[in-house]
Amino acid sequence: MLSVARRPLSAAVPAGNLLGIHLFKCPDTVGIVAKLSERIASRGGNIHSVDVFVPDDKHVFYSRSEFTYNPKLWPRDELHKDFLDLSHYFSAQRSTVRVPDLDPKYKISVLASKQDHCLFDLLYRWREGRLPVDINCVISNHDRSEDNHVRRFLQRHGIPYHYLPTTSGNKREQEILELIQDTDFVVLARYMQILSESFLQSYGKDIINIHHGLLPSFKGGHPSRQAFNAGVKLIGATSHFVTTELDAGPIIEQMVERVSHRDTLQSFVVKSENLEKQCLAEAIKSYCELRVLPYELKKTVVF
Amino acid sequence: MLSVARRPLSAAVPAGNLLGIHLFKCPDTVGIVAKLSERIASRGGNIHSVDVFVPDDKHVFYSRSEFTYNPKLWPRDELHKDFLDLSHYFSAQRSTVRVPDLDPKYKISVLASKQDHCLFDLLYRWREGRLPVDINCVISNHDRSEDNHVRRFLQRHGIPYHYLPTTSGNKREQEILELIQDTDFVVLARYMQILSESFLQSYGKDIINIHHGLLPSFKGGHPSRQAFNAGVKLIGATSHFVTTELDAGPIIEQMVERVSHRDTLQSFVVKSENLEKQCLAEAIKSYCELRVLPYELKKTVVF
Amino acid sequence: MLSVARRPLSAAVPAGNLLGIHLFKCPDTVGIVAKLSERIASRGGNIHSVDVFVPDDKHVFYSRSEFTYNPKLWPRDELHKDFLDLSHYFSAQRSTVRVPDLDPKYKISVLASKQDHCLFDLLYRWREGRLPVDINCVISNHDRSEDNHVRRFLQRHGIPYHYLPTTSGNKREQEILELIQDTDFVVLARYMQILSESFLQSYGKDIINIHHGLLPSFKGGHPSRQAFNAGVKLIGATSHFVTTELDAGPIIEQMVERVSHRDTLQSFVVKSENLEKQCLAEAIKSYCELRVLPYELKKTVVF
Amino acid sequence: MLSVARRPLSAAVPAGNLLGIHLFKCPDTVGIVAKLSERIASRGGNIHSVDVFVPDDKHVFYSRSEFTYNPKLWPRDELHKDFLDLSHYFSAQRSTVRVPDLDPKYKISVLASKQDHCLFDLLYRWREGRLPVDINCVISNHDRSEDNHVRRFLQRHGIPYHYLPTTSGNKREQEILELIQDTDFVVLARYMQILSESFLQSYGKDIINIHHGLLPSFKGGHPSRQAFNAGVKLIGATSHFVTTELDAGPIIEQMVERVSHRDTLQSFVVKSENLEKQCLAEAIKSYCELRVLPYELKKTVVF
C-alpha cells in the first residue's frame, strides 16, 4: 500500500501549555500570517507550524496553523474572541479554532449497511483512542441480531444502535435527520443508500463517505467487480465528501494496493476492505485535526 | 510510488550451464508440470521455478518455468524440438522457449511523438544493459533537429531515426509497417496517434503502449489534465497491449504516485512522466522475460 | 512501511481437491523437481508452483511446491508415504508435507512479558482466522488481573493463561518446558527473558522471537532508546529464530518505518510496536505455510 | 524502497515575486514566528510555510520558513539586513536566508574513488537541473582514462577533474584543501578515504558522505558484505555529515530495500548502489533547500 505521511500533531508542547489548531480561509492579501502570529504572540503563545495554500490566480488564502499557549494566560473564550476578530478583519469565509485537549470531541453518527468492516474498524480505533470523536449513535439499514459483535461492542460502550430498514420508497431520511441533528459531521461507513438532495440540505454539515473504488473510476455499484473485469493491476479506495452527484464529491484520501491475475473477485474484495478501513479512518482523523477543506468544486486542500 | 517486485531471473546457474525460460498455454489436464520437468531432467537439466495459473472453471493451463541446463548436452535445436514435441502433445495454444544468453534479443521498433521522456528513458536503459532488446529503429512523427539529444544518442549507437510526419489524412501506416516488419514487438513510447485496425492486423504481433493515466480512468487525450480537474489524490500510468479499442487493451502494469492540493497541472505532468518511464520499462522487461500473456479479453497473466 | 508481498497460497483449487505444500532440502542432483512432480502426477495431482533454491557452490537443494490433488484418489497416509519415499530416495535432510485443510493446525505456545501489543495482536489475528495455528497456552512472567483484556479474551476462547514470574535465579524454564512440550513451535511475543542453552536443547523445536530493533543493530535491551539516541531516520523490527546467541539467530522478516526529528522516544516506541506486530505475524504465517527454512548459520530461505 | 516525501518548495509564487527560504536557530522565546512574519509583511512579503521545532527541555528554537516577496520592493541587500537584524535580536546561533532564483547556487566539490555510480548520478542529476549546485571540480584518487565516461562528461561541461592518488602515508589533504577552499560544502560520493581531524578543522564547512550501509549497523569497510553475511532481509544506505568519528556523524537520510535468500553479494551491491544514489542526492537537495540542521551531537533536524 502507498501510505500517506501527514505530519503528526506537534508533540513538543511545553508543560502547562496546550496545542491549538487554526484553519482559515479568506481573500488573499499581504500579512495574514504576520497578523495571526502577532495575535498569538501577544497572548504569550507560539506558532509551531503554519501551512499556507494560495491557488494560482484564485486570490484565496488558506492556512492551517498549530500553536502552543498557556491556557491560564489565554482563556478559551478570549482565544475564541481573538480569532473571531481576525476572522472579521480578513473577511474570512472560514475560521475554525480547536484546542483538542480542551474542546469537546467532534460528535459523529455512523451510518452502515450489511458490510460492517469499516464500521467495526472505526469502533475499534475509537476504543483504542486513535479516532478523536464521540459517536452519538450507529444507524444501520441492515438488521443485526442482539449478539452480533457490533451490537455487543456498542452495548458494552453505551452507544445506541438504530436499525432503520430502507425501501426504495422510504429512505427513512426524516428519522435519520433527527438522530444526527446534534452531530458535527456524519460518516457513511459503507452505507449503501444514496442520500437525497433535500437530506443533504437539511443536514447542512459535512458527510464523509468511503467508496470501494479508485474514483473517478468505478462509480456506482459493485466497483470491485468492475475493477476485476477491467483487468486492472491496482485497486483502490476513496474517501470523499458527499454531494448531490453520486460518488463525485471532493476527494479527501485515496489508497491503492496491487492485484495480479492470481487475485479472485473475492480477494479483490478482501484487499479493498483493508484499503477502505484505512482510507476512511485517515480521512476522519485528518478532518478532526482541521486539515481538510473543500476547494473549488471538486477538490480538497488536505494540509 | 508503489513498486512491483517480480522475482528476478534465477541467478544460481551452475558454471557451464545456461538459463532457459518456458512459457506455456494449453488445455488443462493432469501432469503437465511432471511431463515438462521430466523432459528437462532427461536432458540433464533442472527446473528452478515453475509458476502455474489455472483460472477457475476455464480449463486452461498457463505456466512459466525457469530451468538450467548444459548446452553441450542439450543443443539449442534439440531443446527447441523437445519443447515442440511437448507443445504438440498437450495441444498447446502457446509455447515459447528462450535462452537469454544464447538467443538473439527481441528486436523492437519504438514509435514516439514530441514528448521524448519515455523514448529517452528506454534508450538510456538499453545502453545500460537493463533492457534486453535490440532497437532496429526509432520512428517519430515529430521533427528533431540533427543535434537534438535523442538524435545524437541514436547516431552514436547506429540506430536509424525515421521522421514520418502524420496528418489526419495520412497516418504513414504503410511506411511504418515496412520499417517494423522484422521486429518481434513494437513499443509506443507516447506515440500520440491511434493505429488503425488494418495496421494492427497487418503487423499481427504485440504492440505495447504507455498511457499517462490510471486506466480505465482518463482514457483518451490529456489524462493528466483530466486527473487534475477531478481532484484525485493519486495519479498513475498504465502500460497495456494495443487493441482496436482506444486505451482498452489488456493492462500489463500500473504505477501510482501521491499528489496533493499543492500539485499544479505541471507537477502532475512531471510526476506522471516519471511513472510512465518506469511503467513502460517494467512492461517491456517483463515481456522479454516471458512473464506476460494476454488472458481472456481484457486481462493479462504477468508471472 | 515497506511491506513484503509473498505470493499467496494458490486459490485455484478445483472442486473436491485439496492444496498440499511440500518443503524439501536435500543434496543437489539432477531431476529432483521432475521426480517430485512425476510422483504427484502419478496420483492424479498437479503442481501449481515450484520454487527452487540452490545456493552457489553449496551442493544443497531447497524447494517448496504447492500442488492440488483429489484426496479420494490419494489418501493422506499414502501421500505421506510417497513423500517419505522421495525423501529417502534423495537422502533429504528435511521433507515436510502439509495439507492445510486436512492436517491439524500447528500448535503453539506464546510467551509474553508486560508489553502485550504483540500478544494481543496475535490473539486478534488468530480469532479473525488469519493465523493458522492453535494456541495451547499463553505464558507470562507479568501478572495480569482477572479482568485484564488479554485475560478476558483468553477466558472467552478457552485458552489457558499461566503466570510464571521469573527472577534472576529462577527462570521457571522447567515449568515452561512442560507447558510447551506438545507444541510444534513457540512464539516469544516480547518475552523479555533470555532462554538458556539447555532450555533450547530440551525443547529442540523452533522458537520465533520478535526484536524491536533492526538487527544486527541495537541488540539487547532498549533498542528503541538506542535507535533514538543514534539519530536514525528509519526504525525497524526483526523476527528471527532463537539461538543460544542473543538476538543473533537467523532473521525471518524485517520491517521499517520512517522517523524524523519530530519523533520522540515515545513515538519511536509506538511506531516500533506497530512494526513488531506485523513483522511477527508475517513470520508466523510464513512459517506455517512452510516457507521458512534456516540456511547456513545465520540465514533463512523464505520462499 | 521506502521513499521520503518532503513537501516540495512552494510553487505558488505570484508573478513578479520570488521565493525566499529562511533557516533559523536561536534560544527559545515567545513570538519568534510573529516577529519574523511581521518583518516579512512589513516589506510586502507573505509567509507560505513555517515549520518550527523546539526539542523537549532544550530551550532551543529551530525554524524554517518559505515566503514570497517582490524583489523591487525588497532589494536583496535590504532583505539580508533585515534578517541580520532579526538574527541579532534573537541572539541566533544560525540564520541563513536564500533566494534560490537570485542567489548564486551553492558551490561544491565532489570527491570520489573507483566506484563512480554516485558521482555519475550526481553529474546526471546536475545536468538535468535537478541538483541546484555548481560543481567547481571533481577530485578522485582513482585514475580514469581520458575517454572514460565521467571524464568525457566533465570535459563536455567544463568541470575540472583532479586525479590525486592517495597512499597510506600521503592523503593529499593539503592539495584537496586548496581545491575545495571556495566551496560551500563538499560531497563524498563514495570517497574511500578517512579524512583527518585537521583536514575537517581546516575546511571548517559541512561535508556530506554516503555510506553503503544502514548506520549504525555495518560501519567501516565492506558494509554490503557485512550485511550479506548477517542474513538481513533489508539493506540500506545512509547519508550523513562527516565528523572525526568514522561513519558516526549526524544522519541526514536513510533508505532501504528488501533482499531475500535469492540475492547474492553482487545483487546486494547493485541494490545498495541504487539506494546510495538516491539517498545522497536527496541529502544534497535537502541541504541546498535549507532543510537540514545538525542537532545535538548525533542528530539532524530535516525540515
UniProtKB/TrEMBL annotation, chains A, B, C, D:
GO BP terms in the entry: 'de novo' IMP biosynthetic process; one-carbon metabolic process
Coiled-coil ranges from the UniProt annotation: none
Claim: Hydrolase is one of the keywords in the record: yes
Formyl transferase N-terminal domain: residues covered: 107-284
Listed Pfam families: Formyl_trans_N (PF00551)
Gene3D superfamilies membership: 3.30.70.260, Formyl transferase, N-terminal domain
Record keywords, A-Z: Hydrolase, One-carbon metabolism
GO molecular function, one term: formyltetrahydrofolate deformylase activity
PANTHER family reported in the protein's UniProt record: FORMYLTETRAHYDROFOLATE DEFORMYLASE, FORMYLTETRAHYDROFOLATE DEFORMYLASE 2, MITOCHONDRIAL
UniProt name for this protein: Formyl transferase N-terminal domain-containing protein
Organism for this UniProt entry: Digitaria exilis
